[in-house]
Amino acid sequence: MKAMKEPASSTIDSTKLSYRNIIDGVMQPWVMRFIKDVGKGINEFDMIRDGEKILIGVSGGKDSLALSMALSVRRKWLPITYSLHAVMIDWKEHPIDPAYRPRLEQYFKDLDIGFEIVEEPQFPSTVPEEYNCYICARNRRRILFEIANQRGFRQIAMGHHLDDLVETSFMNLFLRGEFATMNPVQEFFEGDLYVIRPMIKVHENTIKRLAQTYDFPVVKPVCPYDQTNIRSSIKPIIKEICHMDRFAREHVYEAHDLDCSIKR
Which of 13, 73, 143, 244 is most buried (most C-beta within 10 Å)? Predict the structure, then answer.
């Protein structure tokens, strides 16, 4: 399996604003709305309470970096506190460019979030003939679960957003014959562990705008399937539907009548 090429350099784009402006509270209104929308998702589904430890699953992409920024900054606005630790799983078969590592480490240091990169084999011991995105994601989640269990984390925050929820709904409906999606809060092991998705109400376009405006150290992991998987094929269909009704994504979200929270 051939790996796709990484960008040749990880130098900072001088045309972008420094992400440190957001940390210092100097932000445009739309950035503040983004952070508040993350807070709305957290509050609606009671994802995080005072004193809790949250493990953030980081890919190095725009979504997980934006999530980390929001979770860090909102701590300054709240009368409660919670601790954050980020883990990035770096596949040995398709590792990130080492030049990105110091920028990622500096980013999380500036956010006051513990950060580590864990090198793991991408393929499980028994690899099915048709290896796909689902199996890869499941393997990544398994590793995160093991880390959370070993270190006493009960919540794992993932960077999924509203578009992810809608795309998952379409895939399940049209390809599996069921109206189901990813939940804002998903329980595992009878409540011993929860996956939380604080950005579940945030549009992907908002996250893209953040990455285009600020110098987030975005690294695109090497993936042979990122342009050929089912999710990438669903995206233009949803975009076309949203031309007919710009609130189409919200309608899908509301149709699920989501009701979930962490049992404490």
Answer: 73
pTM, two decimals, is 0.90
d(CA 252, CA 82): 32
Burial class (CB in 10 A: 0-12, 13-18, 19+), 229: middle
Rounded distance between C-alpha atoms, residue 99 and residue 143, angstroms: 24
Q: What is the mean pLDDT of the chain?
A: 90
> Please, what CATH class does the domain formed by 20-255 belong to?
alpha beta
- Read off the pLDDT of residues 239-262 as tens digits, 9 standing for 90 and up: 999 999 999 999 999 999 898 889
Alpha-helical regions (H) of the chain: 20-23, 29-44, 62-73, 101-110, 133-151, 162-176, 204-213, 230-244, 248-255
